[in-house]
Amino acid sequence: MQFLAASPLCSAFAGLNFAQAAGQAVMTPAEAIDIFDLEATAGENIPVAHWGYLSTGVDSDSTLRANRTAFEKYQVRTRRMIDVSNVDTSVEILGKRWPTPIIIAPVGSHKAFHADGEVAVARAAKSRNHLQLLSTMTSTPIEEVAEAREDPLWFQLYTDGGWAGVRARLRRAEAAGCPVVVLTVDLSGGVGARHTLARAIREDARDCSVCHEGNGPAARTKPMLVGGDSSEEMQLTWDFLERLKNETSMRVFIKGIVTAEDAELCILNGVDGIIVSNHGGRGDESGRGAIDSLAEVAATVRGRTTLIMDSGIRRGTDIFKALALGADAIMVGRPYIWGLGAFGQHGVERALEILTDELKIAMRSFGTRTIAEIGADSIMIG
Question: Chain-centre distance of CA 98, in angstroms?
């Protein structure tokens, strides 16, 4: 013990917290060992109020935490003696082949995290060939993002501005070549109290009025909110879905489904796809992890429509578990934003590279050569 205490290795490891495996800030994208190194680096770059906005859940953040801890109850059943020298991570979504099942989720206000904003993310998506969803709350017009991506985007829809605002955004998304509109319903009951954000704002000494007008999103910083009637309140119901389908030529997905009952209603109402999501723990305080909701929804969907999972993915093993439970693909939000905040476009590329490499490692470790080989027999509840 005396020898170990005197060893230089002891002092070298003294500052590392192995129990939490927290990330460490790095100087270059290549130095990032995992997603959490990019998180630590971004945390040093992003203004404190903006960091609070990115990090917040609602109330006590229990759903935010559940999105991570819920993965722990699912255990992978590993197959041995299989040639996994070459694994294929590609998937087909609506007839198009993608190199991985990792989709870039819609996150608003990218310029709050890096000056290049959504254009940097689009260029990263182009360089690594990932499907990208653009938020209604984008800080860059859809036309500019589509030009940078040079491949069709999917568009995420909020109903701000009433039906006139919805129609205006649909026309712009269609003109930009979007094949899919994603109606987000996991905030339809209103947003819970974001205490983490509120505390972060108190710590930020900057003049917030420079970027924000009043208490709502500023139209001048949210170019997709221009026009419409802000006084008209839209109720997200199945009747609204039918109206939306009749209004657009794009395929319609619903994002925010977390129960079997609503998944069945989605199918009965002819949606083209379902995204299981609790808005990254930012909407309501259900206390339920999205991976648990996926298990319930997938058991009802049974392959009858495209099924995507969002909220809480941080590692390749998380992706593997989601695919095993029935997802056709997954979306990531905070991980690529951490990359954006850390290093701009190159940070986003590194985030996507890390997750793809970790998925490949998981597939080799668990004895699966293709995404199709990841199934219900690959997983169990511990």
Answer: 17
Please state, in angstroms and rounded to a whole number, the distance separating the CA atoms of residues 227 and 238: 25
Token reading at 56: 């917040």
The residue assigned the tokens 């900057």 is 206
SS3 93: strand
Q: What pTM does this model have?
A: 0.91
Rounded Cα distance, 229 and 205, in Å: 34
pLDDT one-digit tens code per residue, 333-376? 999 999 999 999 999 999 999 999 999 999 999 999 999 999 99
Q: Give the Cα separation of 329 and 275 in Å (integer).
A: 9
DSSP letter at 357?
Answer: H
Bigger pLDDT: 56 or 301?
Answer: 301
Sorted by sequence, the CB contacts under 8 Å of residue 103 that are 6+ apart come out as 130, 131, 132, 133, 308, 329, 330, 331, 332
In terms of C-beta density within 10 A (0-12 exposed, 13-18 middle, 19 or more buried), how is residue 109 classed? buried
> Can you give the residue ranges of every domain in the chain?
34-381
User: 34-381: which CATH topology?
Assistant: TIM Barrel (3.20.20)
Distance CA 186, CA 282 (A): 9
Whole-angstrom Cα distance, residue 253 to residue 154?
10
User: Which residue in 50, 114, 279, 346 is the catalytic one?
Assistant: 279
Can 279 be counted among the known catalytic residues?
Answer: yes
